Structure of Universal stress protein:
Amino acid sequence: MFDKIMVTIDKAEITNKLLDATIEIARNKQTQVTLVNVSQEYVSNGTTYVPEKFLEEILNEMEKASLEQLQQAKSKLKSAGINPETVHLKGDPAHEILKYAGDTEQQLIIIGSRGLSGIKEMMLGSVSHKVSQLSSCPVLIVH
């Protein structure tokens, strides 16, 4: 049914559920699976002085953690017979996910939800909510 599936990987506990859903959808099919993780491209130091080198180190650690998450997810899918691509993006997660999905003509986005509701979701925003509202392809939200 779907030839190109994008799976967004986050550090949340939901990642295993995302991968399980991906395996069920893509197993034994000629489906191209792309694992995507988005990390921030800047860190605000607020009002206190923090050396610029320290902020660079934080961003480097965030990127390293992102790449490790992608590799762990890739290993799990490979053990199920799925050979995914991995993509690391930087920036606003919802924007980057939607841009990548559009640019690569994804047919399905699988994304996790932390389960925010009501005022928390309204105040904090929800990446999964934004993606589901603005995506041009179907979005599967895994709780």
